[in-house]
Amino acid sequence: MAITGLKKGEIEVANDLIALKEKITAEMARRCYNITVDGQSGGSLEKYSKDPWLYTDDIPKKGTTPTAEQANKVIIPVNAVTPIVNEVNTGDIMMSLSQLEDAINTYSATSV
């Protein structure tokens, strides 16, 4: 899947990334049960609601481009539910927050 970029000034990336991370953390904590779907154990996703997956010392700052680590702390937990986005590497541009937000809103609306 292609990664699309966010340009400075289009949206407030830092605030949006932090808000999205909060939603993802809550959803991962909610998915703390080992579930079985179609004979496949999904396992608990609670680990993604704790360190090292939280923003602690590496909180995104206003006016800066998110780092690969900051982006992957959002992307990897969402992909643990259903892979939708490639992880990013240093130098790559973070994909659209709206796509990830749509995914986490869909996940939050489903029962586990």
What does this protein look like?
- With 112 residues, this protein is mostly helical.
- Helix 1 (13-30) runs parallel beside helix 3.
- The chain has helices spanning 13-30, 68-81, 97-108; strands at residues 36-37, 40-41.
- The protein is globular, with a radius of gyration of 14 Å.
- It has a two-stranded antiparallel ribbon with strand order 1-2.
- Helices cover 39% and strands 4% of the residues.
- A hairpin with a 2-residue loop joins strand 1 (36-37) and strand 2 (40-41).
- The chain-level mean pLDDT equals 74
What general form does the structure show?
Answer: globular
Poorly predicted tracts of residues: 1-11
Binned, the helix content reads 25-40%
Q: How do the helices and strands follow one another from N- to C-terminus? A: HEEHH
- How far is the N terminus from the C terminus? 27 Å
Number of helices: 3
Order of strands in the sheet with the most strands?
A: 1-2
Proportion of beta-strand residues: under 5%
How does the SSE layout of this entry go?
Elements: H1 13-30, E1 36-37, E2 40-41, H2 68-81, H3 97-108
Antiparallel strand pairs: 1-2
Briefly, what is this?
With 112 residues, this protein is mostly helical.
